[in-house]
Amino acid sequence: MTKSYIMHELKDYALISLGVILYAMGVTIFMLPYNLTTGGVAGIASIVYYATGIEVQVTYIIINAALLVAAIKVLGIRFCFKTIYAVFFMTFILWLLQRIIEIPDPANPGEMMLPKFIGEESFMACVLGAIFCGIGVGVCFENNGSTGGTDIIAAIVNKYKTMSLGSVIMACDIVIISSCYFIFHDWFRVIYGFVMLFICATTIDYWMRRRHQSVQFMIFSRNPDAIADAIVKMHHGVTMLDGQGWYTRTDRKVIVSVVRRREQFVIQRMIKSIDPYAFVSMTDASGVWGEGFDQIKVSEKKKKEDRNKKNAVLVCVTNNTTKIDTAQQKLGDYYDIRSLLQVGCDTRKEFYSVILGQDPRKRVSFVKKFFGFDAFYLAKDGTVTLVQGNYDQAEYDITQHSDLDALQQYLEKGRGKKK
Prior knowledge:
single chain, 16 helices, five-stranded mixed sheet, alpha+beta
């Protein structure tokens, strides 16, 4: 276990603690004194508190103990360790904050009550409480943790589906908030609960998106090569487009690059230092998927359907029409055999020709890494090198086969197992 790993873990736990404290403040300072109800286990615990007087941390820990079993099985032990820590720390903080802020109840001598710090402004308490709770949950999720309850359900769903965390939590919590009507018989409190839920979910989504927001640069410069090289040295991708200045009728290069929003000012300063007269257009990129950014989430069921459906693409790493036709005749029942040119790999360009001049394993790995398709190389002696695997994996499954017949049997056997 390296020092950097330990420091990273300690940072996670410190930030999870901060998130828990913010969430607990939202509950104890803004929600409980005003008899408001939010979603999740905290909402259930608050309803139990209003109905029976049992303090929220007691109900909170009991319900989460059951939900953590699901977290261990589905989300993994690392997520679960931090969630267990967050649940127990939340239980302690809820108790501690109540002990710190409670005051004697003037209407009931000998009893304690939670004070209303912002007077009778219930709606303001609703808004502030939701913001504190939303940021707290967002901070915990951002650092591989959870405050428990419906957060665990949301994390499980988000692992397999493209639904946002806030939407999942909102769907889980509608019934919880509606049930507070049976305690107070007051629809205004139900409405406040839904307002609090909406603000909390919106805050969570904003907090989670802020680190993943990206921008796209289009740069028109008289020194495009220097700018492109500088962007590449900053470990960002660059695409150079051919353009033409219509007024001057001269050819121009247009640089396109997508970077995280937090890095936009570094890129701007770099461009200005190289070409202060460059024309730059920057636009928001609402969704960016690919290497260095987010991954496209597809359910396992959909992946299996795509793998098993007829005519899945398989690239023959060549542009030799004879080899393509031979492979299509042999494998065409289940695969659409494509050449390098058909998937956008132009071997007439120097970059591709150098890479594809290497040994068969490197050839097929190159096609898999940069074009995403399963691929095979048919050598002059008839032997076949096949690469398969998930696009987002660091290493792929590479196998050797004596000829196309052996490859066909191997692929059919694999299809049978997947079915």
